[in-house]
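Final report, Chapter 2: Outcomes

The project's central promise was a pipeline that accepts a single protein chain and returns its three-dimensional structure in a standardized token representation, suitable for archiving and comparison. That pipeline is now operational. To close this chapter, we reproduce one record exactly as it appears in the project archive, with the input sequence first and the structure output second.
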Amino acid sequence: MRPLPITILCIALFLVGALNLISVVLSFFHVSVGRALWILVTTLAALTSFCGLWRMKRWGVFPYLGGYALGVLRS
């Protein structure tokens, strides 16, 4: 059974990922193609890690933490 905090986290992250995909489609008109593709690739990688978290797989934690660390370092 999946713990409740992980369930809530995964649902919230899936919603954010879906909104991010929508923003990528809309941003093709306002930002460079390279930037839009970067956002698309990182969003798809994040959604893959969220699937791993949802299925309670260990491999889902590492890309999630790596993406979080990259986000912190990039800020």
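Archive annotation: The mean pLDDT is 85.
This record, like all others produced under the grant, will remain available to the consortium after the project formally closes.
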